[in-house]
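Quick question, first post here. What does this chain look like in 3D?
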Amino acid sequence: MTVYESDLPGVGKKHEVELGDESRLVIVTHNTGKREVFRRESADSDSEKLFELDDKLARKVGTLLEGAYFQPVHSEDIQTLLGDDTLIEWVEIEAGSEVAGQTLAESDLRQVTGASVIAIERGDEVITSPGGDATVEVGDRLVVIGPREACRNFVDLVEGS
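> Answer (accepted):
Ran it through. Tokens below.
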């Protein structure tokens, strides 16, 4: 994706975003804060105005597009990177997992892997900061935090890899 930026003297700024099919999305940000959004079939074609937003509404729409309120899941492995090497991962407990039916203390997951369980998702319920007496059940999703290698060890142990 290529983004082209240009000044519009007396008006504001223009950004053109290549959309992959030779068309472009053109966003004009006026000095007043108003945004106008256009679409161009190609770099050489005329623009068709799609809509206009005031500054406040444009910022709200922008946060939605950025994913500030919701981030869709694209794969079965969910992973969030914190800093250089710390991850938050979601690990599903399947039938046959050696930790299913054990408490967190019995499973000794933190000591063995170096990753910590910070929450258990069980259906619609979320158990935050579960203690050692929390039992791990088939179908649970464990929310785990730790260094990348520790999280990898955790997944391997829980999935039996």
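The chain has two domains: 3-66, 78-159.
The first strand starts at residue 3 and ends at 8.
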